[in-house]
User: Fold this.
Amino acid sequence: MSGSPNRATNPTGGKSRRKNVTLDLPTARRMLPLVKGIVADIVDTQKHLSSLAPERDTLEEHRRALSWASRQRRYAIGDEIAQAEKALATATAELDALGVSLVDPEGGQVDFPTRINGRPAAFSWKAGEEAVGFWRYSGEAQRRPIPADWQGGTPIRY
Assistant:
């Protein structure tokens, strides 16, 4: 995993301290470097878990006829999966503590919650994108480009 030295900490033991976070565009963009590091860890961990699954399934299917070396590997895979799942939960909790929602762990998509025209919405960023450049209303999958006139701030209306 890539590991990021500037991680968010959450003294409340994994529970989000924020209930209704509303972020403006400049804040979401300032948070992006930290979020990118956390999301990179999540995507890497998801890939690692996906790569272990076929081997685990094969070993599990033939568990009664395994050699000693294969049995050791089966137990080792179980430990690797448990560690990866714990790392995934920790990284997801870090995003939650920041008020950012993980939309797609495999693709590395996150939402920064906001309100647009009085409706719940989010600025959307996906791994591989340079900046926060999209938004969408809550409950919608379609990501829309952020209009140029929002660059100084978002038309947040309550």
